[in-house]
Design a protein that fits this description.
Layout lengths: L2 H4 L14 H14 L8 H7 L4 H23 L8 H24 L7 H17 L5 H8 L3 H9 L42 E11 L2 E10 L10 E5 L4 H12 L6 E4 L3 H4 L1 H10 L2 E4 L9 H27 L6 H21 L3 H8 L5 H32 L6 H8 L4 H12 L10 H49 L1 H14 L1 E2 L4 E2 L6 H17 L1 H38 L14 H9 L24
Parallel strand pairs: 1-4, 4-5
Antiparallel strand pairs: 1-2, 2-3, 6-7
Helix pairs in contact: 2-4, 6-21, 9-11, 12-13, 15-16, 15-17, 17-18, 18-19, 19-20, 19-21, 20-21
């Protein structure tokens, strides 16, 4: 009704409204879908006659019919028993569960199945569902999990995977004929140790041959800075002497006092001239202890590297000297060997991997920072050396020691400063005695006695520190293992089953102490951890999978009787499965509503306009 019709006089007759073309075609389409025999014309012809697209009519009819069916369903329920709301909720829950299962299936297609816990869970779940639902096939089970049926068949046929790395099962009793143990992989003899550059100098000598002339290679190495320079100084000559050793160390020290020189006990390195030169250079003379080849391991390794590179080239010179004896000249051999070794060391250092390894072990500290720390270290070392010398000189002067000062200082300079201070304090209370005929020897005896006590005290402290370190290491290992067990409770359960298997007594066919022990404690804790992480149902499935793998592994050792006893103990502590509620759709209220209307009582037929009876043939 338009605006003009609203203002017409009330006595004027309003003409009836006519349906639109679209509404007429929709009604015609609905009749065509339910009673096609009632129509004498097709919907397509009728739509084209009024210039309307038949596809549009079909879409509008579908939408209108859906709304009409929904309204009609609500109207037709009037007077009937109420809906079973529980059944509707269960139907809706089932639809949501199926949708979530589809999403989970798609997600599982991108998940790795390599974890032992996942393998145990899948195998245990399949075995449980196969017992509860015998009609369940491997194909349906694998499709729901996006798992290859071939993988599941392999897991079922090979239930003995490798023991997880986190588990450390109790070793089984040794058989009568023990097989030889496999040799563990050899570790590196000398790893790269973190030493500050500019604090330790190692020196040694090795043999060379050039132009068939025997030569000596005298070299020094900065132990902490060998990643930058493999050898600090190199001298090649036809002999070895204290003068050449001092020259090599003088070139390496270069005026920096406070170095610790590590040398062997060869004659040139232990000579009086060498020790006096080290003292003048401000370096601590530290000979290698006999029977400890690792003291100079780094420079020995450097010699091996240099000789392995230069060896083939020097061998050529030897063959040349055999061919042309005129080339067998010592001066020529020294010059060529020095040039060759120097060039090879430079080229080796350009491509050495030691710099990267040293950078990793020094935790990214810059070389400048390390050099500053090394300078401070040398300053402290030089200060302590100076303090010892000054203290000994003061003792020599104040207590009238009848021995040359240089000899007295040199003989006692190697003792720690705290020992010398304690000795001076003890000697001070005895120096007034007249029966002391040789004060130097008496003071040296006091120093040695105090040094013995000091060494014993240091040994006790070192032993206590080592004991504390071992206890701390054991505590850290226990904490790490406990953390690993909590992160992998399936491996912990396997470890508990192995411990229980060690308690099986074949002669009495029982578990030792009825299964009471560390194995049962681990079993309870592992099950509690599994329940906390995965819930009761998944815990039973994982436990079944782990026990199946464990059974295949130990059945020959403990027999079926042991498996039955351990399985009974496992079932005793496993959580019960949650029971499914009654899923019956016929609730008590719904049944009462149906029964109350059963029998001859019948609702009266609706009016003809609402009748659902089919139309008679030819009716309108």
């Amino acid at each position: 009704m338009n605006h003009h019709q609203l203002h017409r006089s009330p006595d004027r007759t309003i003409p009836p409204l006519m349906p639109s073309k679209i509404l007429t075609l929709i009604c015609l389409t609905i009749v065509r879908r339910f009673r096609p025999a009632w129509l004498a014309v097709s919907v397509g012809d009728a739509a084209r006659e009024v210039d309307v697209n038949p596809e549009r009519v079909s879409r509008l009819t579908t939408r209108a019919q859906a709304l009409f069916d929904k309204a009609l369903a609500s109207l037709l329920r009037r007077g009937r028993p109420p809906k079973d709301r529980q059944a509707d909720a269960q139907t809706q829950h089932l639809a949501v569960t199926q949708a979530l299962l589809g999403i989970a299936t798609d997600v599982l297609a991108h998940i790795s199945w390599r974890k032992p816990a996942v393998r145990a869970l899948v195998v245990g779940a399949y075995l449980r569902l196969q017992q509860q639902h015998p009609k369940l096939t491997q194909k349906d089970f694998c499709e729901a999990l996006s798992l290859s049926p071939r993988t599941l068949r392999h897991w079922l046929a090979h239930p003995d995977p490798e023991t997880p790395a986190s588990a450390s099962p109790v070793p089984p009793p040794a058989p009568a004929t023990t097989t030889p143990r496999k040799r563990p992989p050899r570790r590196k003899r000398f790893g790269f140790q973190l030493v500050l550059p500019g604090t330790q100098l190692a020196g040694d000598t090795t043999n060379l041959s050039a132009f068939d002339c025997p030569l000596k290679l005298i070299a020094t190495q900065d132990v902490g800075g060998r990643d930058q320079d493999l050898l600090q100084s190199v001298i090649i000559d036809d002999h070895e002497s204290a003068e050449l050793v001092v020259q090599a160390f003088d070139e390496a020290i270069d005026g920096r006092e406070g170095f610790q020189t590590i040398v062997d006990q060869g004659t040139p390195y232990m000579a009086q001239a060498t020790r006096e030169a080290f003292e003048a250079l401000g370096a601590e003379h530290t000979p290698q202890v006999e029977g400890t080849p690792t003291d100079k391991a780094t420079i020995e390794r450097a010699f091996e590297t240099a000789k392995s590179i230069a060896g083939p080239l020097l061998a050529i010179t030897d063959r040349l000297a055999e061919t042309a004896p005129v080339l067998k000249n010592t001066r020529l051999a020294i010059a060529l060997s020095t040039l060759l070794i120097t060039a090879l060391l430079k080229s080796y250092q350009a491509g050495a991997k030691a710099q990267r390894r040293a950078h990793e072990e020094r935790q990214g500290l810059a070389r400048e920072d390390l050099l500053d720390i090394a300078k401070e270290h040398r300053e402290r070392s030089r200060a302590e050396e100076r303090s010892r010398r000054l203290l000994l000189e003061a003792i020599h002067e104040h207590y009238d020691i009848k021995r040359p000062k240089t000899r007295f200082v040199r003989s006692l300079r190697r003792y720690p400063l705290v020992v010398l201070q304690r000795a001076e304090h003890a000697f001070r209370s005895q120096v007034h005695r007249d029966d002391i005929r040789n004060r130097a020897a008496y003071f040296c005896a006091i120093v040695r006695n105090i040094h013995d006590d000091y060494s014993a005290e240091q040994a006790r402290q070192r032993a206590n520190r080592e004991l504390q370190q071992r206890l701390q290491a054991q505590q850290d290992e226990h904490t790490a293992r406990l953390k690993q067990r909590h992160e992998s409770p399936d491996a912990w359960l396997r470890e508990a089953l192995e411990a229980l298997a060690a308690q099986w007594l074949p002669h009495s066919r029982t578990l030792l102490f009825g299964g009471i022990g560390i194995g049962r404690s681990w079993l309870i804790d592992a099950i509690d951890q599994l329940c906390e992480q995965h819930g009761p149902a998944a815990t039973r499935d994982i436990a079944d999978g782990v026990f199946r793998s464990f059974s295949a592994h130990v059945v020959e050792r403990i027999g079926p009787g042991g498996l039955v006893a351990i399985r009974a103990l496992l079932d005793e502590h496993l959580p019960p499965l949650p029971q499914d509620e009654d899923q019956s759709r016929c609730t008590q209220e719904f049944a009462a509503a149906i029964l109350s209307r059963a029998g001859p009582q019948r609702r009266s037929d609706p009016d003809g306009a609402l009748s659902n009876l089919p139309a008679r043939p030819g009716g309108s």
